[in-house]
Amino acid sequence: MLPTAILSLSTTQAATVPTLQFGDVSIKPYATEQLDIGGFAQTRQPVPGVGVRAGRLRNGARITIHNQIELGGIWDFGPAPGGQMRLFEGQASYVGLKHFVFTVGIFKPSFGLESMQAQGDTTFIERSSISTITRNIAAGIERQAVQIEAHGQRYHVALSGTAGTAGPGENGNQRALVFRLVGVPVRTKDLFVHVGFSGEWVFKAAHARDEKPGMAFSDYPEMNVGLTSKYLNTSRLALNSVGAFGLEAAAAWKRFLFQGEAYDIIAKRAVENDTQHLHFSGWYTQASYTLVGKPRIWKSRSGAFSSPVCDKKQDLLCHGSGVLEAAARYSEANLHSGSVDGGRQQAWSATLNWWPVDILKIALQYEYGEIQGGRKPENFHAILSMIQIKF
Asked: CB under 8 Å to 354, separation ≥6 — which residues?
């Protein structure tokens, strides 16, 4: 006779990918697979023009037990070819107390609006540079952390203690605090307003044996097909402590979504027998419009916006065309302070996102960027397309 758990096996339809149900235990498969195709149409300095790269290969499952315990196990196979494999998520959460979530393990702590959008839900193929730089200080993906979070229809609050990232690296001995406060002052049928404040403070910077504590601040242009060096790059700096603080805001009106964030990074640099105070900064603003389908909606659990979906009970070719979204973004990132010149970047981007099927996204993005100072001053025009499967 088969065990009772197997006899009670059922599947519930979660879009086109089923969730397995064993009594009070549900198992939901997880995948984010991205193929990037494109490169630089024009640059000041010669670089390879077009490339193909598997930008993300993440697979695993999330398990819910008795609607009280959530477990996540996801493996990151790294960018291909040549990517570094590591554990993307290995966490346990208790959700049995209404409005509260307690999480421990390897996961993404709550920090920043764009950071808290799942990679497959971001409007653009890559996040703005300032969002990437700040989240990598003490939050971001694959982070060893503990977190307490409270959320509801009009708020999201989280406090985390974080260490290093999973897998090979030299930041396992880092120690930091991360927090996020989000409120929704306006929530009507047609208008939704989101405001928030995030911060992180590294009070023990990472270091290898016989090395001073420190870190580097860097990012690729806001599209990465594995063909470029990091134009924004301070190299590794000896630091006593680092903090990043930012404001976030968004307004959704009917099919429009406007959002933006601004961050300041404050670092105390150890220079011989003195301390040098460094200040880096950046911001972005963007607007998107859902041409076909149901616009992006706000999720209190993440304090961020989901992808647009079909407004009908239809997974394939919503309204005969598929879900369609257009967006534009402007961003700045400044890594110049004192004697440190990691470069200053301005970027203009436009994208068109298409979901012919709920789990399949095809994006086409144009970007123009200017990098002043730093290692490689550059002006570039770039075109990138992405094919993504996410569930």
From this structure: 322, 323, 324, 325, 361, 362, 363
Among the listed residues 74, 242, 81, the one whose alpha carbon sits nearest the alpha carbon of residue 142: 74
The predicted pLDDT at position 14 comes to 43
User: Does residue 358 come out as left (phi exceeding 0), alpha (psi in the -120 to 50 range) or beta?
Assistant: alpha
Cβ burial, residue 248 (10 Å; 0-12/13-18/19+): buried
Q: Is the pTM of this model over 0.85?
A: yes
Distant-in-sequence, close-in-space partners of 12: CB < 8 Å, separation ≥ 6: 18, 19, 21, 26
Which of 80, 151, 369 lies closest to 383 in space, CA to CA? 369
10: pLDDT confidence band, cut at 50, 70 and 90? Answer: very low
Q: How far apart are CA 26 and CA 63, in angstroms?
A: 6
CB 50 within 8 A of CB 60: no
| Residue among 143, 164, 155, 147 at smallest CA distance from 197 | 155
User: Can you tell me the distance from the alpha carbon of 250 to that of 345, in angstroms, rounded to the nearest whole number?
Assistant: 23
Q: Give pLDDT tens digits for 302-334.
A: 999 999 999 998 888 999 999 999 999 999 999
**φ and ψ at 189, to 5 degrees?**
-60, -40
C-beta of residue 72 within 8 angstroms of C-beta of residue 206? no
DSSP state of 230: -
- Helices of type H across the chain: 4-7, 113-116, 129-138
Closest CA to 375 of 349, 336, 347, 348: 336
Strand 256-271 vs strand 237-253: parallel, antiparallel, or unpaired?
antiparallel
Q: Which ranges in 139-272 belong to alpha helices (H)?
A: none
Strand pairing partners for 364?
Answer: 352, 385
Higher-scoring residue by pLDDT: 190, 377: 190
Check whether 281 has a pLDDT greater than 80: yes
The CA distance from 271 to 239, in Å, is 9
